[in-house]
């Protein structure tokens, strides 16, 4: 009886020690598109092992200090469609967030999850071949989508030098800035017009119009003649 009491005391001490030194591991389970995955089977290798089904893509385990492996799976009719396995070390109390991303699983096939299939093993094995084909097709689709976005992302980078060259060439061409409109006004006035008349037909400031006339004069398109307080602008070439 004395030895039995000692053993019970030791077991109680271990239980209380586990409770005192406890932490919470929790997180969210996603697929490759980063969408939450519901009804994933999640387990952690505590003693005893803890197993749960994630609702709304979330899971949570309470564990003592130690090194653990967390495994999540999507299982349909004894076939593992996607899985992930992550390791984590707990050295102190607190909340530990560990999100999991499921990857398509072709190689593992049927996962032993404690379901007795009885005499239907042969029939289920034949059905699993069809699921494996579907899983392989799913992987091909995912790879095709990734390749498409990768090529789409790379192509503009190859064209950037050409695009920059075109921009430089366009930058070298002189901008009109309304000069053609000013020349047209002078033509309509018979080849000469006062700066005041031009100002009435172009809704710009006096300073801006003076700069435009000076630019045309510099290019040899017009000639400016001072008359009283104003200027007469004469078109040199029509």
Describe this structure as you would to a colleague.
The protein is an alpha+beta fold. It folds into 3 domains: 96 residues, Immunoglobulin-like (Sandwich), CATH 2.60.40.1120; 52 residues; 57 residues, Arc Repressor Mutant, subunit A (Orthogonal Bundle), CATH 1.10.10.10. It contains 5 helices and 12 strands. The strands form 3 sheets. The protein has a 5-stranded antiparallel beta sheet with strand order 3-2-5-6-9. Strands 1, 4, 7 and 8 form a 4-stranded mixed beta sheet that branches. About 11% of the residues have low confidence.
Under CATH, the topology of the largest domain can be stated as: Immunoglobulin-like
| CATH architecture identity of the largest domain | Sandwich
Find the CATH superfamily of the largest domain.
Answer: Carboxypeptidase-like, regulatory domain
Mass-distribution shape? rod-shaped
Task: Report the total helices.
Answer: 5
Number of strands: 12
Strand order of the largest sheet: 3-2-5-6-9
* Computed Rg: 40 Å
Q: What's the overall average pLDDT, rounded?
A: 77
Uncertain spans: 108-122, 164-174
């Amino acid at each position: 009886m004395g030895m039995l009491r000692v053993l019970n005391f030791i077991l109680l001490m271990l239980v209380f020690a586990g409770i005192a030194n406890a932490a919470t591991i929790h997180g969210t389970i996603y697929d490759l598109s980063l969408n939450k995955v519901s009804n994933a089977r999640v387990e952690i290798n505590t003693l005893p092992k803890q197993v749960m089904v994630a609702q709304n893509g979330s899971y949570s385990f309470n564990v003592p200090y130690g090194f653990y492996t967390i495994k999540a799976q999507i299982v349909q009719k004894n076939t593992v469609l996607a899985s992930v396995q992550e390791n984590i070390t707990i050295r102190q109390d607190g909340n530990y967030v560990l999100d999991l991303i499921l990857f398509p699983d072709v190689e593992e096939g049927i996962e032993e999850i404690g379901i007795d299939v009885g005499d239907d093993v042969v029939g289920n094995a034949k059905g699993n071949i069809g699921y494996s084909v579907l899983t392989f097709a799913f992987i091909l689709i995912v790879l095709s989508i990734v390749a498409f976005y990768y090529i789409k992302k790379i192509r503009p980078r190859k064209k950037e030098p050409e695009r920059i060259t075109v921009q430089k060439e366009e930058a070298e061409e002189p901008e009109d800035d309304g000069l053609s409109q000013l020349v047209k006004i002078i033509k309509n006035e018979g080849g000469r017009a006062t700066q005041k008349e031009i100002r009435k037909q172009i809704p710009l400031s006096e300073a801006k119009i003076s700069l435009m006339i000076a630019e045309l004069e510099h290019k040899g398109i017009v000639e400016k003649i001072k008359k009283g307080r104003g200027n007469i602008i004469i078109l040199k070439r029509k």
